[in-house]
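Handout, tutorial session.
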Amino acid sequence: MPDWIIKYWIEWLFGVVVTILGILIRKINRRVKETAKKNDAIEMGVQALLRSQMIADYNHYADKGYAPIYARENFQNCYDRYHDLGGNGVMTDIKNKFFALPTQPPKGEKHDD
């Protein structure tokens, strides 16, 4: 077989391989971008749920006039995860108010949690 035929077959095969790799790389790139967008949405959603839960917890225990130890631990855990997900200082004021609540019910009231 003449050398020029082998040379052109190798060049053609190389071109096909490069084209296929280019297509695969573009598909992978698109998938990575889609996944990153979904991850961002999930993070923002979880952050919103944590913020909502902390606000609800604060309102619940502020109405009761105290926040038991277990509620404080849960609130602190939510607050820490909220900030791990990029939460800003908006919840710091609510956290400070929550932790200012006493841990025991006022005298004469029974503990109903």
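The second record follows below. Compare its token runs with those of the first.
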Amino acid sequence: MGIIVGCNSDGSTPQSRRAVQAFLLGEPVSAQRQFTAIAQKPDQNYVLNNLRLGASALAAHDFEEAEAALVRAYEVLNATRVNDPGRRAAAVLFDEKIKIWRGEPYERAVANLYLGLIYYEQGDYQNARGAFENALFKLRDYGSEQQIKSGDYTTVESDFAIALLLLGRCWEKLGRPDNAQAQWAQLDQMRPDARELLQRTRDPLTNVMVVVDFGFGPRKTTEFDGSIVKFYPSPGEVGQIPRPVVRVNGSEHYSTTPLFDTVVMAQDRKWQSIDTIRVFKSGLGTALIAGGAITTGYGLNRDDGNTALIGLGLMAAGLLAKASSQADLRQWEMVPRTTFVIPLRVEPGPFELDIDFPDSPGLRQRWTGYVAPSPGEADLLVYVRAMRFMAGEYAVRKPTDVAPIFPAE
């Protein structure tokens, strides 16, 4: 998938575009530094910029900064009055970008997943549990075009399988195997193709959890009259997700199953933010323009200036409604296409980790300096952002304390 950076039509700024570009070019430390300067600004992009900062810091292994940024975004996303009535009214009349960005449902699920991973890395399984549970929020399934137009939807359970897997592991670590089994039974029913992954996650001797972000999510554009969001590329245009191969001290471990694909999710209406107000405004604008054109023509044919003026007024109102119905193209560019979870049994002590994608050359990373804990202790979580421009060798600064990464000498 090509690298595409947003332009002015998506509400971005020169500063945010430069920072996003740094991330996409494999420079998360630079991206983090640039987003730190703008993420505190309390504007309509506050949530989005903090998620961008959180993803950049996570890729740079600065978990403290990542946690702070993601928590700031989380607090606003879960506030009851994020888009207050005045801001909502202005958005209805003028431009959606006046609203606080809340993202698509799949973007919010990934945000909660990231926060859970950070707590898991800290051994804070209680907070990790809460974050993974929040990633499993209920979804709105509109089903048909008629339901979208009427604003009618069905509430359905989330199928964000990765959160179920990790939630079960948290419950196991918290000494609640009954709750763990409930989550894993649900996952087993939902994704029978992931049974080997589930078995390895349930293994009491598993002591290292490797988490690998791969690729990028879809991009937003519009179709029809600009009021309908379209996501590209389609799953058929990008092909299947390549599988990673993991080696510990040179010994090869299994390749794992991807538990989600944001390219696929974006095509699923229940994972989209369907804005019925925007659709209504577009339809209203079309009707006003058509009605105004008919009224204007009627007035001109009858030499009735007042009727013609009324028609022109209707057309102007229709054009305003159409202009204000344009879709919000802001998006979280760092969202991965998928996140692999690779549970491992590793002999306690220092180890080297190689992560490679044989079917997608140029992504290999080698990590040194990690120390595997004894089984029964807190898991070691190893986070890796697999990107073409981040291939290479890295070392953890201290064997027992994951700090910002730097190239291995």
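Points raised in discussion: Confidence is low (pLDDT under 50) at residues 1-9, 80-97, 398-409.
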